[in-house]
Amino acid sequence: MIESILSVNNMVTAFKTSDGLLPAVRGASFSVKKGETLCIVGESGCGKSITALSIMGLLPSNGKVTEGSVMFENKDLLTLKKEDMRSLRGNEISMIFQEPMTALNPVFTVGYQIREPLMIHHRLSKREAHQKGIELLKRVGIPSPASRMNQYPHELSGGMRQRVMIAIALSCNPKLLVADEPTTALDVTIQAQIIDLLNDLKRDFEMSLIMITHDMGVVAEIADRVIVMYAGEIIENGTVSEIFNSPQHPYTRGLLSSVPNVDDPDFHLNPIAGSLPLLNEKISGCRFHPRCPHAMEKCKAVSPVTFEATPTHSARCWLMEDEEVRQHGGQRAGTL
Amino acid sequence: MKLAGLIVQRFMQLILLLIGISFIVFLSMHIAPGDPASIIGGPTASKADIEAIQENLGLNKPILVQYWDYLKGVFSGDLGFSYQTKQSVTEALTERFPNTLNLAIASIIVAVVIGVAAGIISALKHNSLFDALSTMIALGGISIPNFWLGAVLILIFAVNLQWLPVGGLTDPFWTIEGIKQLILPALTLGTGSAAMIARMSRSAMLEVIRADYVRTARAKGVREKSVIMLHCLRNAMIPVITVIGLNFGFLLGGTIITEQVFAINGVGRLMIESIAARDFPMVQGAVLLVATLFVLVNLIVDIVYAFIDPRISYE
Fold first, then answer.
1. If pLDDT is split at 50, 70 and 90, which confidence band does A1 have?
2. Quick check: B92 pLDDT over 70?
3. What are the residue boundaries of the ABC transmembrane type-1 domain, all occurrences included (chain B) (predicted)?
4. What pLDDT shows up at residue A333?
């Protein structure tokens, strides 16, 4: 079996607010294998970006991981010293963000911003870093890279800026790239190009990729494995074919039937009714039950445990209990 | 970036502005009660004496004709002669201006150093005790009148502690004595600006430290010191530069009270004396000088802008 490069165990991230401590991520556990692409999907506000920022140690000042561990190559990132974590960021773990328009510093040239991590982590001279920067820009598909080095972000288009961001993130050959909705702010044609580019680069750089998205089309395109988040919890975890072909959780099914299918003339959009609960909303039992078309009495009372449909596919839903009872004669594979 | 175009455009504006300003100052001086001829003649002068003086100074001509004559003089580089001392206005201004400039530069240095530092620390330690204190002191700094602050500083540091001289600015600024003479007036004059700069720096910095590109810098593994001093500060300084420029302009023209309190022979004091004496040419000359400097400082700010913020180009 291929070893995991990152494993997140029961991570809880909470925010200090005027309403008290609000948990945004409620006990997330998952792992990413070497060379694997993991997609984290869910509605806006479900905690997927916060999960990414928690791993990176880049939470806003009022946010904190209060429980759990994040193991990256036998190091717990949550207990690392600030300086050790800094020397890891941009070096072994990189991140790209949703908004290429604001993610680059407007007062520094592209060249400055791409040289920076190379000079910090790889201790290259300015001249060496400049050469490497040109190569990187070329690799991410930026035409006339040498002259782009002297340009400022505002002189580039959104797609070009995202390519620059990717070049910066990859500059130090990271083992893991965290991409937080990198295509959401871009035109559709550019989106496809960026996804293709990420797929290519992942292979070339032999890195693992965590891709955060709410676009199931992107998931189908790029994912090896998918985790679905709802209201701060991971409610389903499986390979991309398992998630698309036999989704277990009603929420996952809802997500999939919220995507239009133009090939199927009988397809009707079937969006999930209602909206994501607020962080401080108290919901008994399963956090999805108020919106779930299959909610039972048990769902309102008891939070579901994790059931395994296959060794690689699990979900947190009481509906699976019945199926398991049928399949395994009452033997429960779930864990709390 | 077409800087030359900007400079030419600003000089055209400056000329129009100076015509406007000179007209308003000219008019207000002539409308204000008090006649220079009777002041020059003194309390014992007869009506005929005063009329003779008026005739001599050209004050009996229609006001627009007087203004036209003055304007012609200004454009040929002649600001006229003082009614009081008969000294050329240009000469008097060149004599006094270095003191004012020294004071204004010392004050803006005080203001920038204190203001920017306090603003940044406040923003980094948002909602801390330091932040609360510095915000309170800044509010005080803006509200406290110059003449009061000057008097209190003199009382404490010059009279009681005797660390610094009471007043005067006689030694050049590069000598120890000269620096000692500058400290109190610079503090007095710079406090208000320091407060304004601190408030601006704080809010600009607060906005910038939450910016996406700052998160990017951290994600790249940039050291925290560089995140603040390079990635944040350079962006935060863009609005602060405007405030610094404006304040420097105000300081150049706003030395009147401070020069009076500390008995510094500068343009401000010259202006007060000339207003009291209804010395029209001197007042007009001083106001024109201050206005010109104000416009020039703003021009410099615009040029500095383009160097700090690459998104600005003058085309």
1. low
2. yes
3. 97-305
4. 46
Please compute the mean of the pLDDT values over residues A272-285 and round it to a whole number. Answer: 80
Cβ pair A174, A204 in contact under 8 A:
no
> For residue A48, is it within any domain?
yes
Interchain pair A120, B211: CB under 8 A: no
Contact (CB, 8 A) for A21 and A14: yes
One domain for residues A211 and A258: no
B212 touches chain A (CB under 8 A): yes
- In sign, the C-alpha dihedral spanning A256, A262, A267, A273 is positive
The reply to whether A235 falls in a domain is no
State the smallest CA–CA distance between residue A223 and chain B in angstroms. Answer: 23
Same domain? A278 vs A205: no
Distinct helix (H) and strand (E) counts, chain A: 13, 12
Nearest to A219 by CA among A259, A251, A189: A259
Q: If contacts are CB pairs under 8 Å, which of residues 44-63 in chain A contact chain B?
A: 56, 58, 60
What pTM was computed for the model?
0.81
Domain count within chain A: 2
Q: List chain A residues with CB under 8 Å of B311.
A: 106, 152, 154
Which member of B218, B223, B235 has the closest CB to residue A106? B235
Whether residue B211 lies within 8 A of chain A, CB to CB, comes out as yes
**Nearest-by-CA chain B residue for A103:** B213
What mean pLDDT comes out for the span A155-164? 91
Q: Does B155 touch chain A (CB under 8 A)?
A: no
- Whether A106 and chain B come into contact, CB under 8 Å, resolves to yes
Task: Report all structural domains of chain B as residue ranges with CATH numbers, in order of start.
Answer: 93-277 (1.10.3720.10)
Within this chain, do residues A207 and A324 fall inside the same structural domain, yes or no? Answer: no
**Residue A234 domain-assigned?**
no
The percent of residues in chain A predicted with pLDDT above 90, rounded, is 55
| Shortest CA gap B203–chain A (Å) | 17
Amino acid at site B31: I
Best residue in A54, A107, A124 to probe B by mutation, most B CBs within 10 Å? A107
In a domain, A334, yes or no: no
Same domain, A260 and A224: no
Helix (H) or strand (E) holding B168: none
Residue A258 shares a structural domain with residue A207: no
Residues A93-142 have pLDDT tens digits of 999 998 888 999 999 999 999 999 999 999 999 999 999 999 999 999 89
A274: domain range? Answer: 249-328
A105 and chain B: CB distance < 8 Å anywhere?
yes
Residues A182 and A163: their CA atoms lie apart, in Å, by: 10
pLDDT band for position B305 (cuts 50, 70, 90): confident
Whether residue A214 is found in the same domain as residue A290:
no
Q: How many CB pairs under 8 A join A and B?
A: 77
Taking CA atoms, B133 is separated from A307, B153, B194, B272, in Å, by 56, 21, 14, 37
Least confident of A171-180, A293-302, B108-117, B167-176: B167-176
Q: Looking at beta carbons, which residues of chain B come within 8 Å of A184?
A: none
Pairwise CA distance, residues A299 & A289, whole Å: 6
**B315 contact A CB<8A:** no
Q: How far apart are CA B97 and CA B268, in angstroms?
A: 9
pLDDT digit string, tens, across residues A38-52: 999 988 888 999 999
**Interchain pair A90, B211: CB under 8 A:** no
